[in-house]
Amino acid sequence: RYIAHIPNDPYFPDDGDHTDTSGPDQFDKVVIHCPEAWDIERGNENILLAIIDSGTDVDHPDLAANIFVNPGEDIDGDGELYDIADLDGLDNDFNGYIDDLFGYDLVGGVTGEEMSPPDQEDWNPDVHYAGDDGWGEPDPSVGNGLGGFMGIIPPDMGVSHGTHCSGIAAAVMDNALMFAGVAGGGCKIVPVRVGNPEGSMTVTDIAAGIEYGVAIGAHVLSLSLGGMTSEPEPVESLAIDYAWAAGVVLICASGNNAGMPFFGNDTCAYPSSASKTIAVGSCDASGERASYSQHGSMLDVVAPGGSSTAMGAITETIWSTWITSVAEANDDPSLTAGEHRYFHAEGTSMACPQVTGLCGLILSRDPTLDNEEIRDVLRATADDVMAPGHDLLTGYGRVNAYAAVVSVGVDENNLPESHGITVFPNPFNAVCNIVAEGDIAIYDVRGRSVRELAFDGGNSRLWDGADDSGAPVPSGIYLIKMEENGKAMSRTVIFLK
What we know:
Blueprint: H1 27-31, H2 34-38, E1 48-53, E2 104-105, H3 161-170, E3 188-193, H4 203-216, E4 220-223, H5 234-245, E5 249-253, E6 278-283, E7 301-304, E8 307-308, E9 314-316, E10 318-323, H6 326-331, E11 340-345, H7 348-365, H8 371-381, H9 401-407, E12 422-424, E13 432-435, E14 440-443, E15 449-453, E16 460-463, E17 476-484, E18 487-495
Parallel strand pairs: 1-3, 1-4, 2-3, 4-5, 5-6, 6-7
Antiparallel strand pairs: 8-9, 10-11, 12-13, 13-16, 14-15, 14-17, 17-18
Helix pairs in contact: 3-7, 4-5, 8-9
């Protein structure tokens, strides 16, 4: 039995009113049993969650501490997030991307109003108003107040989407500020910007974003996006196959167009309809499918994403981190473009990062699980809210964070510790000395076995940065694990060639 951990983040408590009228709360984390799960696991900093979206406000006070800083591009090794001194115009970690210090931007200065968007990319996936991003001020990532569609779709509607999703998955926990993300106790966010300020993106940029997520070593890719049909796009399909083959978990929103004649009643939007992704629909607090949530045989699970009446009145909403767009500042004189704040939204886009964060918790407990095993855990531990087994409306049910974490063998006798392993130097560039009194297993950031070093009576062993076959491994973060007296111990080591 565990005491359910309640974070000190002020907007965490469930106030009973889940609409947008009473201010923020996080009922969504309560109904999927995050507090119980957090007594067992709150997230490991070695687990990377790539938010492939419209970029992330990396300076947001409730996100900054959980933004991944790439050690291969952190030239001075200070771990500083926005360190201009590290931006030297070189691909220091040889992963094919220049200066990807905290993620990557595949969109650049595209506003979303171009008929034929130029092919742009740069090092900076931050959504911000001012700063040297190559185009002067204001930065186009916060929009320009133009665009939209006939008063139905507001201009700059995509600006905060990625920031909102990032907060749902991994807003910093226990910092006495705003919210607690599902995996916000430690898992790191990798912002990958593929969407423009108007909320649209090209399939080639999405594919490139997936490829980058694999290259940076992300364990989970979160894709709160989709097309207008369930049919695959060849470019995206190739990227998805590539990522799945690399062992990466792909979490996708099922889509928000249920009930529209064009879609029918048994289809999820691509890429959630792909067999090598995990499709997430939206449900309310009781587990009932949200009216807009696409569903069908492809659907794996559901998670809270907000709900509304047939007339569009909000009955439940999801609060998270936000950044003010130019259009919002134009409409409300009390707001300033680029301002860090919070706001609410509804959609399968909000359900998707709930499951992304949960995958982070699961992998924090056992980084050796592959993507098929993660899918099995999510399905097997979901609360079966409708007919037994899989149904077309809610898949295998509403995700249950506590049941999922418990199912991967976590108990108080098997909590991770690091005091049984010493590594020096750390980081290393040639050889490191690992001191541990037991057999050692070394894994990469995707949980794949790299090297085993048997205990031979002496507690000091050298690792030369090679795998069991003698082939050199790439620069990156590795996890050293050992078991002693039934207790798991682990420590990370950074290898920089």
